[in-house]
Design brief:
Layout: E1 8-9, E2 12-13, E3 25-27, H1 29-52, H2 55-74, E4 75-77, E5 92-97, E6 102-108, E7 119-121, H3 125-130, E8 138-141, E9 144-151
Parallel strand pairs: 3-4, 6-7
Antiparallel strand pairs: 1-2, 5-6, 5-9, 8-9
Helix pairs in contact: 1-2
């Protein structure tokens, strides 16, 4: 693409918007608090960038502020599950894999998911496989089966 068609402001290219998921923005209470905190953090960073005249940082924080503001506006708070007989949004699920490993995950919104810390997005393949299942049922996980051993 020719440089003539790139929008610039005083030598700083405008950054493209971050992609927003096509799925409903379901969140737990903790997820909503995380989004609110991120909006506040990015808003403060944007104000600081404006005060210092740092155009690159202003572009980056403006993009992030648009993203997090959109995520906050579209957030749908889902109350904790009242019933632990089936896996659903907000459930904490323990599975035992065929090799004997037990793993516990909480099913949460996309922005709050962090598999390394035990939370997975409700749109992830594992969460979709677990949804609606009960203790004792098995699901396909990474090419093998896993049994649901607990739901909290």
């Amino acid at each position: 693409m020719s440089r003539a068609f790139v929008k610039e402001q005083d030598g700083v290219e405008e950054l493209p918007d971050r992609l927003i998921s096509e799925h409903p923005n379901l969140v737990t209470a903790e997820g909503l608090a995380q989004i609110e905190a991120e909006v506040a953090r990015v808003d403060a960073a944007h104000a600081s960038a404006q005060a210092s005249g740092d155009r690159s940082e202003m572009a980056a924080t403006a993009r992030d502020l648009r993203y997090w503001s959109a995520r906050l506006a579209s957030a749908e708070l889902v109350p904790p599950p009242a019933d632990n007989t089936q896996v659903q949004f907000g459930s904490k699920v323990t599975i035992e894999r065929a090799d004997g490993r037990a793993q516990t995950y909480r099913i949460v919104g996309e922005d709050e998911a962090n598999p390394a810390k035990g939370s997975i997005s409700y749109v992830s393949p594992l969460a979709r496989a677990l949804a609606g299942k009960s203790v004792g049922e098995t699901v396909k996980v990474a090419g093998s089966e896993a049994e649901i051993t607990a739901i909290a």
